[in-house]
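TEACHING EXERCISE
Course module: macromolecular assemblies
Task: Read the component lines below, then compare them to the predicted structure of the full complex.
Student: A.B.
Group: 4
Components provided:
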Amino acid sequence: MIIVLKKSATEEEIEHVSEKIKSLGLSVHISKGEERTLIGAIGDEAKLAETPLEALPGVEKVMPIVKPYKLVSKEMSDGPTIIDINGVKVGGNKIQVIAGPCSVETQDLLTDCAKKVKESGATLLRGGAFKPRTSPYAFQGLGEEGLKYLKKASEETGLPVVTELMDPRDMDLICEYADVIQIGARNMQNFRLLMEVGKTKKAVLLKRGMASTVKEFLMSAEYIASQGNTNIILCERGMRTFETSVRNILDYSAVPVLKEETHLPVFIDPSHAAGRWDFVPALSKAAVAVGADGLLIEVHSDPENALCDGAQSLKPTKFSTLMGELAKIAEAVGRTI
Ligand code: PEP
Ligand code: MN
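Instructor-supplied answer key:
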């Protein structure tokens, strides 16, 4: 249930409504927008049926949330969610670009890449220290050493760090070093993991599973939100189909669909969709045109020798050219990058 408060509602009135809902055994999620405050009452709604919440001071109206996802549904927020990551505002008019190598390899490679992508306009640095590899014999990432390299590159460039968490046992470690916790496609429905990141206040980049519906995607986001963390960035990264000419098929229509369904920011990852660097520019341009709030692009200074996903990684010079092209498309759709 969503309780919409009057513009004139006071803090005491908001508190009174919240306490009333809690006393009935439901949990409360308060969303304070520019215009007005909304209170989400999550739990057994039947208990609210006998309580005339409309009659409480400060309440304008009470609306049911018919969707299975509640906290992440569009109705639940007075406008789009803007997540502030060390001053980088995700979800606003400016399209934010996460760039960097698939996995962290050496300090020099990473710092070099970080400096170059920053110069070209990227606003967040990515790099995996714990890698979800198909083969147990493939490079698994540097673990904590990789996190230290990320921290150093971040300190030198000022770029906040995005890195993947695969196991709740690494939660404290990742939180020490990362600004954004990535949940990879393979873990989109690892519900215990989702609940763990939901207990932090860190921003979470949730990637869509390669065979997940939009509804399942949003239910996974709801798991995170249900634990108190609504700093969630959704990321479409392509899905598995019968087509083999690219690594995955990007579901561009997910962007307008998600914009209709949720207040959360939506990113596109063209790199894992394409699987090859030469398709990344075209997919990125389409992502900006379709209304994505950001991009995640793999960039590597020496892709030929990369330990992971070199084939789909752009060289820094190519990334720089792409950023220039994206600026024109962003302008055409009324945004900046
Ligand atoms: C990645 O970002 O490096 C990654 C492994 O992505 P995905 O989970 O989308 O495959
Ligand atoms: Mn990768």
